[in-house]
Amino acid sequence: MRVRRRKGAEEHLANNPHYVILNPEDAKGHWQEIFGNDKPIHIEVGSGKGAFITGMALQNPGINYIGIDIQVSVLSHALDKVLASEAENIRLLQVDGSSLTNYFADEEIDLLYLNFSDPWPKKKHAKRRLTYKTFLDTYKQILPEHGEIHLKTDNRGLFEYSLASFSQYGMVLKQVWLDLHASDYEGNVMTEYEQKFSDKGQVIYRVEAMF
User: Fold this and answer.
1) Where along this sequence does the record place binding of substrate (predicted)?
2) Residue 110 class from Cβ within 10 Å (0-12 exposed, 13-18 middle, 19+ buried)?
3) Structure confidence by residue, pLDDT tens digits, 108-147
């Protein structure tokens, strides 16, 4: 998600260290201590403006959530939502999703969400897609045995690529939705992009894949 640079975004993040982990390398292996409990930890790579991660945290108080985004301005908007929600089971990280092993120990995360990631449609950019095999290597390392990835996208090309990538990696496709909003799936929390695309009548794809 590309947004206009937000004035004061860096200061906004720095002024809220309870929610924004400012030294994420130090958090590796200590996330249960940071949350103050041993509840499952779910992360969203590319959390955007925070609608999904905040909605999930409010809907599931028995789970801890970490929203990850590299863009300072975007994450500052997510912080606004977190502060407004007053949810204690959310933390935010301003880091690159390709370097997750720097911030999470082996098997420290229970589930990973990829929502409306950049599709990188050109074949030469395939290695940048968040479901490319090198990213899957990283996810597998921080997830437990049989850990899961839940992906949503409006981009059919990325969805088809991801299904193939998961399968070729040896992952199990637990369930696939070719039109999520027309299905009987319950408890869906929409991202900002999802709401926008849904309002335009676009189909939303979803898959749950397990290592």
Assistant:
1) 122, 154, 191-194
2) middle
3) 999 999 999 999 999 999 999 999 999 999 999 999 999 9
**DSSP 8-state symbol, 5:** P
Residue 41: name the closest of 98, 95, 83, 103 by CA: 103
**Residue 161 annotated as part of some ligand binding site:** no
pLDDT grade for 1, boundaries at 50, 70 and 90 = very low
Q: What is the DSSP letter of 180?
A: G
Tell me how many degrees the CA angle 79-162-69 measures, rounded to the nearest 5. Answer: 15
Q: Is 44 annotated as a binding residue?
A: yes
SS3 149: strand
Taking the C-alpha atoms of residue 80 and residue 148, their distance in angstroms, rounded to an integer, is 28
Q: Is 69 marked as binding a ligand?
A: yes
Q: What is the pLDDT of residue 138?
A: 97
| Residues recognised as catalytic | 118
* DSSP bridge pairs for 43: 66, 112
191 is in an annotated binding site: yes
Cα-based distances in Å from 68 to 15, 27, 90, 110, 164:
18, 14, 11, 15, 25
**Length of the chain, in residues:** 211
Q: Are 115 and 151 in contact (CB under 8 A)?
A: yes
Report which residue type is found at 64: N
**Phi, psi angle pair for 91, to nearest 5°:** -135, 155
For residue 52, what are the CA distances in angstroms to 57, 94, 123? 8, 17, 29
pTM: 0.94
What tokens were used for 194? Answer: 């999802």
